[in-house]
Write a structure and sequence with these properties.
This protein has two helices and 13 strands; from the N terminus they run H-E-E-E-E-E-E-E-H-E-E-E-E-E-E. It is mostly beta strands. The strands form two sheets. Strands 1, 3, 4, 6, 9, 10, 11 and 13 form an eight-stranded antiparallel sheet that branches. The chain has a five-stranded antiparallel sheet with strand order 2-5-12-7-8. A hairpin with a 2-residue loop joins strand 9 and strand 10 (about 160-165).
């Protein structure tokens, strides 16, 4: 016996599917917890030269080389989202993760953490998306200077996955990846880092006009099964 399908059923199923997708996206957005929301620097501390200045809802780097670090907690497995823009290709900053202990100076973070670099003028091991001098960026889907970029850093055990504007640009495994030899004294010391640590933002120093980097968001959320290397 043939059973007829109500004419409205496909539209109902489409509406249900669209609603479910929107609900899942809404839940994902709600899972982000702001560490910096553009309003104040509660929980953040600056060390070293220079400063970070609140400027119209964003942080602006000034001078350096200094470090603004988040003091309230160490972060383990999670995803960190940073929304930033630069004034020029040579504007220089970075996002530090896995800083072993409360840093007493900016160089502690360099040598006892990992820096995900922001500087469009440098090479693949020292430029945007690189884990500075340790793992090169595979590509640079950066937006033009003055436009906001979204960087997401997934921390999973020894792995660090970096995406930029939705594209995966770096996959680093501290336990397995081959790391180049240290050739410059300002490059980080080689060696293990903890899987729990503090995070920070670097203000690298003025390198001429239009050298500022701006940050309007730093947020964190738990890992999900989807936060794994894409092939």
């Amino acid at each position: 016996m043939r059973t007829s399908v109500p004419a409205a059923l496909p539209a109902i199923l489409l509406l249900w599917g669209t609603t479910a997708i929107a609900q899942n996206e809404s839940k994902a957005d709600q899972s982000w917890r702001p560490l910096f929301d553009g309003k104040n620097l509660d929980g953040w501390e600056h060390i070293g030269p220079g400063k970070m200045v609140l400027d119209d809802g964003a942080l602006r780097t000034e001078g350096g080389m200094g470090l603004l670090w988040y003091t309230k907690e160490k972060l383990g497995d999670c995803v960190i989202r940073v929304v930033y823009k630069t004034e020029s290709r040579r504007a220089n900053s970075g996002v530090f993760v896995r800083i072993a202990e409360p840093p007493k100076d900016p160089w502690y973070a360099v040598n006892h953490g990992f820096e995900i670099q922001i500087c469009d003028a440098e090479d693949d091991y020292h430029g945007t998306g690189a884990i500075y001098s340790l793992s090169r960026s595979q590509e640079r889907p950066i937006k033009p200077q003055g436009e906001w970029n979204t960087m997401e850093i997934a921390l999973r055990g020894q792995q660090i996955l970096v995406s930029l504007n939705g594209a995966q640009v770096n996959v680093f495994d501290a336990a397995k990846s081959t790391v180049p030899e240290r050739t410059k004294d300002y490059e980080p010391e080689r060696g293990p880092r903890p899987t729990w640590g503090y995070i920070g933002l670097q203000n690298h120093g003025d390198v001429g006009q239009n050298s500022h980097v701006f940050f309007k968001e730093v947020s964190v959320r738990p890992l999900t099964p989807l936060d794994r290397p894409r092939r």
